Amino acid sequence: MIDFKNMSVVVLGLGSSGVASAKFLKEKKANVFVSDNNGNEKQQEYGRELNKLSIEFELGTHTRERIENADCIIISPGVPLESEPVLWAKNKNIKLIGEIELGFQFCPATIVATTGTNGKTTVTTLIGKMLEKAGKKVYLAGNIGTPFCSIVSNLKKDDFVSLEVSSFQLETIVDFKPKVSVILNLTPDHLDRYNNLDEYYDAKKRIYLNQERGDFVVLNYRDDKLKVLGKDILAKVVFFGDGKSNFNEENFNLNQLAVMKVAEVLGVSLDVCKEVFSEFKGIEHRMEFVRNINGVEFINDSKGTTPESTIWGLESYSKPVILLAGGSDKHVDFDIVAPYAKGKVKSLILFGQTKPLIKKALGNIVDTFEANSIEEAVSIAYSQAEEGDCVLLSPMCASFDMFNNYEHRGRVFKEIVNKLDPSNKSFISK
Fold first, then answer.
1. How many CB atoms lie within 10 A of CB 251?
2. Where do the structural domains in the chain lie, given as residue ranges?
3. In this predicted structure, what is the pLDDT of residue 281?
């Protein structure tokens, strides 16, 4: 544990993470200074919050002297390690850590940390609900929206933290060591931040960097990049989705299988998990359950804006899927979805700007239909759906051709589904 009393500490980045770090360091009697070279309206609002606590900050610039004379630098997730102020600190051999590491230094609770390209928020939430249902005091924090440092002062030894961690946050850990770490999947992302995919994947793998015997690493067996890991991991490696469970895995999606494996290593019963799953309606726009009409499930995954996220959605369901996809063109490769769609996607309903591109990639392996609007797409899907099917909105694309954002698209989808008439597939209830 670092004693920050009277230390000169600079926090780089004035976002929610930076504010939480600054407040926490103030509690620890550090001399805190926050620096951000931007100065938008939200950061000015954060600045007013720091003013009330008499915490110094600057916007629109980085004062080199303040950074080079610091005893420690706290790096917010949005600040790249190759940015100029970080390089100034590195050249002076100043200690560099991130907000997750700062929180860990003072955390007495048991940490279950989850990362991956897709599914992190849902799994982090479900792990929290599972532990709560099992009678534990549990906090959700990290990339899910609540900075780790904002809850650390409340934690006790018997508590649990279900922590969502991104690759950006994992770049700046030093001693961070969860009791259980979970990697859900590794698919291409953030190539604007990393030079190549290996760099991105290596950042994710840092989650188990400091784990020891007695700790657990939970990995997705269906991800070829993950099932080969294990040789250099000291912690006990356990897999989900490997078909070796003492229950029928086909009755659960991959997010649920991950949670059940975490429950198993923590000694929580399968019945507790089932109860949580039955009550959980999903994170909005992320594999969110909308409605069951005569045995047909409608799922809103409007946040599925890449082919990789749609693959995760398809992998998550054992049921036949009627897939609704399309939107504005991000110049991505839709061909990668083909092996996952074949035999799983019962029909493909396309809408939006990318209709011809997705049809070219998948139209030869899946029955494909085109719609002029999302309303028409839902209507076609509903007319085709049979008991036991899943109608999944997972567009693979951004939303800006027809909607303000993915939230707008998801809300419209839900409104349409909630108006469907269970007694007549030809009509929408008024």
1. 11
2. 8-101, 107-279, 288-418
3. 79
Structure tokens at 38: 């931007």
**Under a CB-based contact definition with an 8 Å cutoff, are residues 383 and 426 in contact?**
yes
CATH architecture of 107-279: 3-Layer(aba) Sandwich (3.40)
The reply to whether 107-279 and 288-418 are identical in fold is no
Q: What is the mean pLDDT of each run of 10 residues along the chain (430 residues)?
A: 94 95 97 93 92 96 97 93 95 97 98 93 96 98 94 98 95 97 82 74 93 97 90 93 91 93 97 95 87 95 90 86 93 91 96 96 96 96 96 93 92 96 73
Does the domain at residues 8-101 carry the CATH identifier 3.30.1340.30? Answer: no
Give the pairing of strands 160-164 and 110-115: parallel
pTM: 0.82
Q: What is the pLDDT of residue 429?
A: 55
Sign of CA dihedral 82, 84, 90, 95: negative
Classify residue 245 by burial, with Cβ atoms within 10 Å: 0-12, 13-18, 19+. Answer: middle
Res 427: pLDDT: 59
Q: Which CATH class is domain 288-418?
A: alpha beta
> Residue 399: which residues within 8 A CB-CB, separation 6 or more?
302, 305, 327, 328, 405, 406, 408, 409
Q: Which residues 6+ apart lie within 8 Å of 144 measured at CB?
A: 120, 121, 124, 125, 164
Looking at residue 216, the DSSP 8-state letter turns out to be E
> CA–CA separation, 239 vs 328, rounded Å?
36
Q: What's at 261, amino acid-wise?
A: K
